[in-house]
Amino acid sequence: MDIIFLNPVFKQMIWGGSKLRDFGYDIPGDNTGECWAISAHPNGDCIVKNGEYAGKSLSELWDSHRELFGNLEGDRFPLLIKIIDAKDDLSIQVHPDDSYARVNENGSLGKTECWYILDCEENTTIVIGHNAKDSDELADMIKNARWKEFIREIPVKKGDFFQINPGCLHAIKGGTVILETQQNSDITYRVYDYDRLQDGKPRQLHVKQSIDVIKAPFTPEMTEPVVSDLGGCKITHFISCDYYSVEKLEVNGEVTFDMEDYFQNYSILEGEGKVNGTPVKKGDHFIIPYGFGEYTLSGNMMLIRSYVE
Ligand code: ZN
């Protein structure tokens, strides 16, 4: 059985930069905003690099080789892992939950997502939540463009982790690089775009949908990381929610795991080492398939691991 290494898909964005080159990628331009690292989404379906399934897309593996994922049910691979380089501010947005998306977005999934801050410039902030006291005030603030009062901005630093539930207003601000783990969905409602123009026109806003789905008042989702030291690897468990569990692994030496999940996604975000003897480095992404058994990580590297339960 092979570990499944994937080729990322890159996305040019008006707010993107060139920092994804630091991961060793040959990016398509100086405004590359997103690396879709582990994705079976039709807008960016990653191709397998190695082994028996080389050249197949992750969605093909999901459709035709479900045994690799423990015969997990579902019509699509459940997660999407991205690295995001925001040179400029992203629009202020919100995602629906599964039930709203099912009815209003042709059966699509909603989106729960989370962010690990890989890097940010000094004095960087992000937008999480808002200051409206109830849904009437929320609607008024959006309809009357009371953005300064409405938007809740907080400082961020490298190593911070944020869980963004459906209905939570959010935006990444310029100068931030993050690893995002999310449900496999592309449904985004744009609330405010700083009145920017793209090709001479403002990008579409989704006022009605935003007012429908933003929860008011805002209550921060407090996550309490749990750290365990295995000797050779420190694990920081950030979250387990209905859609995923996300952990940071800091390997310094060697550690062996017994694979007991449906599958595990790995992204190497710093350093280099080996997985079962195969050399790996910053910027590599791979999936440990179902029933793989024991595997060993060694070297000096930081990884984010995600899985479903
Ligand atoms: Zn989002």
**The CATH homology group name of the largest domain:** Jelly Rolls
Biggest sheet architecture: 9 strands, antiparallel
Instruction: Tell me the span between the first and last alpha carbons.
Output: 22 Å
SS-based class:
mainly beta
In terms of DSSP E residues, the strand content is 35-45%
Order of helices and strands: EEEEEEHEEHEEHHEEEEEEEHEEEEEEE
Gross morphology: globular
Helix content: 10-25%
Oligomeric composition of the shown chains? single chain
List of distinct ligands in this structure: zinc ion
CATH third-level topology of the largest domain: Jelly Rolls
Task: Compute the CA-based radius of gyration.
Answer: 19 Å
The number of helical elements comes to 5
How many domain modules?
2
* CATH architecture assignment name of the largest domain: Sandwich
Uncertain segments are none
Could you report the average pLDDT, rounded to the nearest whole number? 96
The first-level CATH class of the largest domain is given as Mainly Beta
